[in-house]
Amino acid sequence: MSDVAARPAPNFLANGWIKAGLILAAIVATAILGARLDTSGTLYKIFIDPFEQMASAPDLLVQTVWEGLVSGVLYALIALGFVLIFKASGVFNFAQGIMVVFSALTLVGLHEKGVPAWLAVILTLGVMFVLAVAIERVVLRPLVNQPDIILFMATFGITYFLIGLGESVFGGNPKQMIADQLWLPKGAVDLKILGGLVSLQKIDIAAAIIASVMIAVLALFFQYTRIGRALRAVADSHKAALSVGISLNQIWVIVWFTAGIVALITGIMWGARSDVSFALEIVALKALPVLILGGFTSIPGAIIGGLIIGIGEKLGEFYWGPLIGGGIESWLAYFIALGFLLFRPQGLFGDKIIERI
Amino acid sequence: MKTSHLMKTAALGALLAAGTFAAPAFAQDSIYFANNAYRTGPFAGSGIPIGDGMRDYITMINERDGGVGGVRIVYEECETGYDTKKSIECYEQAKAKNTIVYSPWSTGATLAAIPRAHIDKIPILSMAYGLSASADGTSFPWVFIPPFTYWDGASLMVKHMAAELGGMDKLKGKKLGLIHLDAPFGKEPIPVLENLAKKYGFELKIYPVAAADMQNQGSLWLSIRRDRPDYLYNQGWGAMNPTAVKEAIKNNFPINKLVGVWWAGGDDDARAGGPEAKGYKSLNLNAAGTNFPAIQDIQKYVVEKGKSLAPKEKVGENLYNRGVYNSMLVVEAMRNAQKLTGKKVITAEDMRRGLESLNITEARLKEIGMEGFATPTTISCTDHSGHSKAYVAEWDGTKWTKPGEWLEPLKEEVRPLIEANAKDYTDKAGNWPKRVEPCEKSS
Question: What is the ipTM of this complex?
Answer without folding.
Answer: 0.71
